[in-house]
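Sequence in, structure out.
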Amino acid sequence: MNTITRRTFIGTTSLFAAGTLTSCMEEKKTKPPLTHHVFFWLKNPDSDADRNKLIEGLRTLANIETIRELHIGIPASTEKRDVVDNSYSVSELMFFDDVEGQNIYQEHPVHKQFVENYSYLWERAVVYDSIAV
């Protein structure tokens, strides 16, 4: 008769979990995500209405199928230090599976519509793209 003890159960599930975690980590190493981080400086930086309008537009970008994750933010009230630049008004951080996914995003009609409808709000935008190592 096979009886499963608590020790056997815990040992078996721990091995399964470790194998799954290792498998996920190996998959991430073979296909590193690309990040696309954009910082926007509004023409009217003191306007809550303009900031909220830009955020509204940025949220429409979540409908683009190659975006794996989208984070929209405003400067945090963190400690003031020489290395911290919180002069921007709004930022977006997107994650893509690869460069091809980011290229699709750039040419996507939703992205082009966003630029057409909301670019009047910002005076400057700076983009940082990076690939995981």
